[in-house]
Structures are given as structure tokens and as C-alpha cells.
Design goal:
7-stranded mixed beta sheet, binds guanosine-5'-diphosphate, globular, G_ENGA, 6-stranded mixed beta sheet
Length: 451
């Protein structure tokens, strides 16, 4: 029953300055509109979402082929980069069309050939290049036909993305009935809730899963057909059905689940994307690490509903509890919409509250917001505090309607709305949140000017 298809992953590989981050920005640009409207993001330039037509995929800018020692590509090759290549579905290898090939390119090419991954060779900075003569040299890398592109100007980029994704999307389309979009929107509150439990290694994910699932009837579980399919664990609690989506190599050993693989950013990201609600587990003994904040950033970027669990609460004393709370307020302020639970997965304390909080977050994420109520809330908010003028323009807000779910998107229509400052958008977000009791989900407030 593993019907969760992870989004395909495209890894961008190449030495410094060939244009990886320029290409990354161009590929992920389509996504910016929604993301920019969710407040408090920590953007990470290394992972983003691109689209071919309506099909989303994940782009990873590996950025990591930096020499850290004088010799030896294996030293240079950051572990993360190797892992990203191994976990991707296709690699785009960038070289610099102006500088030509150097020894470093040859070394990377050799590793890529050895990896067995599908690789597309992109010759960047090719604007104005006289194709035949200049491109011929790149055949030498032994990675097939070179694709001339200009990441800076956009030439050839869409065709490159199409070619990279075409076989993966065809495979996906061939798989029975359900389109990715349907899969994403199908989580009505009375259907099963797709839940991902995310967190660094050792925070207690598998302990919690065993506590949760152990008390309930496990309907089905699946080992993956390929490494890129999700593992799903289905269970029921009362009249609710939940599907747990694996984040990082969960395996069933006898009667219990355990995490056997090392932490994978890509798998975590894919599982978060495939879920409706994410439970972010944090080890209270360790405080809030950069990696915790990173994962939290992914979750808000994808707009998923969120519950935070400060786990191992049994093992921290009062002083430490206060310290963790301060750390949380300082480093994860942008998660203020999420409910925070204090848990001991090991002792089963607070675990009962987990699914209640998950249900509530899910209900908020899929709330139906009627146009008249949204518009009334908008008018009351504007009356209480009108948007500031910008020069001669005074933004005029006419009405609001719902533009989507998970996260709820509220679209405000009016005039001169591009002059509305972000602080005012956040004010409105707070007003909608309060009026509709939307705790546990990010909320996107967007403006549409009609002139
Ligand atoms: P990265 O180190 O591989 O991520 O490379 P960057 O994306 O930072 O680009 C390195 C430099 O190459 C920057 O100065 C870019 O402006 C430039 N660059 C990137 N793409 C192109 C391109 O298509 N044409 C030209 N002429 N310059 C480019
Ligand atoms: P995972 O890597 O996130 O799946 O973490 P595990 O579930 O394997 O847990 C890592 C370690 O933390 C194990 O030794 C667990 O027994 C321990 N652990 C998990 N939850 C708790 C808890 O609530 N309290 C304490 N004291 N230890 C815990």
C-alpha cells in the first residue's frame, strides 16, 4: 500500500563558480511566490522545489566539491555531496563553457560515471557560444551529449529540466490512477492523516513510533520496492486512520521499528513533503541544534502543519527545562504557530496528547474558510488598523477568499496591494488565525491587486 511517491530529486553537481547556485535559483523560482508569503522562514539555498509543467521535483545544490586538502577528491567530496548523489534520481553535472574543462572536472566526471547514476552534462555560460566547435571538447568527459545552457539568462534551462525529469515523470504517470496533485489534496479531515515524524538521529523517533503504533492495530506496513518509495505504516486510533511516513530509513525488526540508516536530509525532506502533518521531535537534553532549526525551516517552507515534541523530558531537570524553553523561544521563534508538547517517548508520558495535537493541526490545515467570514474578518481588521499609505497610494482591501489548503491560503483582493508592507500582512495573518482558530498550521496571506 505504499502509494506515497516521493518527489523526484535532481542533484546539481560541479566545481565552484560553474553556476550551480544560479541554476538552482532559476529552477526553483516557480516556487518562490507561495513560500515568500509564509512568514518567518529560514531559507536554505541547498534544497528547493522546481516544476516541470505541474509536476514538482526537488532540486539539491550540492555545492560541496571544495578542496579541503591539497590532494584527493575523496577528501574533497563532502559526505553530504556523496549522499546527495546516491539519493538523487538524476544528476545535472555543470561545467563552465567559458573556461573549458580542467582536471577537477575530469575527476568529478570519473566519480559520476562510477556512481551509476543517470547524469546529464550541462555546459553553462553558453550564451553566444559558437556551438559546434566549443561544445565538442566536452564529449571528452564521457557523459554523453553536452547540453549548452545559460543559467544566468535562462537559455536551454527548461529543456534541460524537461530532459532530466521526463523518464521519471513518465514512470510516475504510468503508475496507477492517482496523480501527484490528487495525492496531495486528498487529505480531508475525515480521511487518513499522513504524518511524518522528523528529527535528528537519536531524538527518539522510533521509540515514539513504537509507543504510538504498539498500542494500536497496525493495518499494513510496507518495505520499499525501490529505495525511493516511502515506507508507510498505517494504524488506527478510535475512528481515525493514520499513515506514518518514514523520514529516514525506518525498518521493521521483529515486532518493533527502528531507524537503521544514518540521517538523510533528502529523505526527511521528501517525507515532510509527502505528509499533511509533521511531528518534529527534539531531544530536550541537547537543546536546539542548528540541524533542528534546519529541519524546522524545511517544514515551514513546505507549509505543512506542525506539532513539536520536546522529547526525553523525563531526563531533564528543572533548570535544563527552563534553558530548553529559552533556546526554543530564541531559535525557533518562527514556529510560534505550532503546539509544543513535552514528552517521554520512552516512558509513554505525554504520548496520548500527540495524536490529539496532530488531529487539531490537521483540522486547521484543511479548514474551510468561507468568503463572507473571511471578508468580515478582513474588514474588521482594516477598521481596527488601516494599512499604511505608501507615497500617494493607500492600499484598498475589498474582499478575501480561500485559495487553498494545507496550508490554508487566504487571498485578499483590492487595489494598490503591492504597497502593503510585510508587517501589515503579518498583522492580518494574526487576525485570521485568531478568528478561525488556526493553530498548528502555517497560514499564507496573499494579495491580488486588480489594477
Ligand atoms: P556556483 O559556485 O557553482 O554555485 O556558481 P554561481 O552560481 O555562484 O556562479 C558563479 C559565477 O558565474 C557568478 O558570477 C555568476 O553570475 C556567473 N554565472 C552563472 N551562470 C552564468 C551564465 O549562464 N553565464 C555567465 N556569463 N555567467 C554565469
Ligand atoms: P531515533 O534515531 O530518532 O529513532 O531515536 P531512538 O528512538 O532510536 O532513540 C535513541 C535513544 O534515545 C535510545 O537509546 C532511546 O531509548 C532513547 N530515548 C528515546 N526516547 C526517550 C525518552 O523519552 N527519554 C529518554 N530518557 N530516552 C529516550
Amino acid at each position: 500500500m505504499a502509494d506515497t511517491r516521493f518527489k523526484p530529486v535532481v542533484a546539481l553537481v560541479g566545481r565552484t563558480n560553474v553556476g550551480k547556485s544560479t541554476l538552482f535559483n532559476r529552477l526553483t523560482r516557480s516556487r518562490a511566490a507561495l513560500v515568500a508569503n509564509i512568514s518567518g522562514l529560514t531559507r536554505d539555498r541547498h534544497y528547493g522545489e522546481g516544476r516541470v509543467g505541474e509536476y514538482p521535483y526537488i532540486v539539491v545544490d550540492t555545492g560541496g566539491f571544495e578542496p579541503v586538502a591539497t590532494r584527493g577528491i575523496l577528501v574533497e567530496m563532502a559526505r553530504q555531496t556523496a549522499q546527495a548523489i546516491a539519493e538523487s534520481d538524476v544528476v545535472i553535472f555543470l561545467v563552465d563553457g567559458r573556461e573549458g574543462i580542467n582536471a577537477h572536472d575530469h575527476e568529478i566526471a570519473r566519480l559520476l560515471r562510477k556512481s551509476g547514476q543517470r547524469v546529464l552534462l550541462a555546459v553553462n555560460k553558453a550564451e553566444g557560444m559558437r556551438h559546434h566547435a566549443d561544445l565538442a571538447q566536452f564529449h571528452e568527459l564521457g557523459l554523453g551529449e553536452p547540453h549548452p545552457i545559460s543559467a544566468a539568462h535562462g537559455d536551454g534551462v527548461a529543456a534541460l529540466a524537461d530532459e532530466a525529469l521526463a523518464p521519471l515523470l513518465a514512470e510516475r504517470a504510468a503508475q496507477a490512477g492517482e496523480s501527484p496533485e490528487e495525492a496531495k489534496d486528498g487529505g480531508e479531515p475525515d480521511h487518513r492523516i499522513k504524518l511524518a515524524i522528523a528529527g535528528r538521529p537519536n531524538v527518539g523517533k522510533s521509540t515514539l513510533i513504537n509507543t504510538l503504533v504498539g498500542e494500536d492495530r497496525v493495518i499494513a506496513y510496507d518495505l520499499p520496492g525501490t529505495t525511493r518509495d516511502a515506507i508507510e505504516i498505517e494504524f488506527e486510533r478510535g475512528d481515525r486512520r493514520y499513515t506514518l511516513i518514514d523520514t529516514a530509513g525506518l525498518r521493521r525488526r521483529g515486532k518493533v521499528f527502528e531507524t537503521v540508516e544514518k540521517f538523510s536530509v533528502i529523505k526527511t525532506l521528501q517525507a515532510i513533503e509527502a505528509a499533511n502533518v509533521v511531528l518534529l521531535l527534539i531531544d530536550a537534553r541537547e537543546g536546539i541544534s542548528d540541524q533542528d532549526a534546519h529541519i524546522a525551516g524545511f517544514i515551514t517552507e513546505t507549509g505543512r502543519a506542525l506539532v513539536v515534541g520536546l522529547n526525553k523530558w523525563d531526563a531533564v531537570d528543572r533548570e535544563q527545562r527552563e534553558w530548553v524553553q529559552r533556546e526554543y523561544d530564541r531559535k525557533l521563534r518562527f514556529l510560534s504557530f505550532a503546539r509544543v508538547l513535552h514528552l517521554s517517548a520512552l516512558k509513554g508520558q505525554g504520548v496520548g496528547a500527540v495524536l490529539k495535537a496532530v488531529d487539531a493541526a490537521h483540522a486547521a490545515a484543511f479548514a474551510k474558510l468561507s468568503t463572507p467570514r473571511l471578508t468580515r474578518t478582513l474588514q474588521a481588521a482594516v477598521e481596527q488598523q488601516p494599512p499604511p499609505r505608501k507615497g500617494i497610494f493607500r492600499p484598498k482591501m475589498r474582499y478575501a477568499h480561500q485559495g487553498g489548503q494545507n496550508p490554508p491560503r487566504i487571498i485578499i483582493h483590492g487595489n494598490a496591494l503591492d504597497a502593503v508592507p510585510d508587517s501589515y500582512r503579518r498583522y492580518l495573518e494574526g487576525q485570521f488565525r485568531e478568528a478561525f482558530k488556526l493553530a498548528g498550521t502555517p497560514l499564507s496571506v496573499e494579495f491580488k491587486s486588480s489594477r
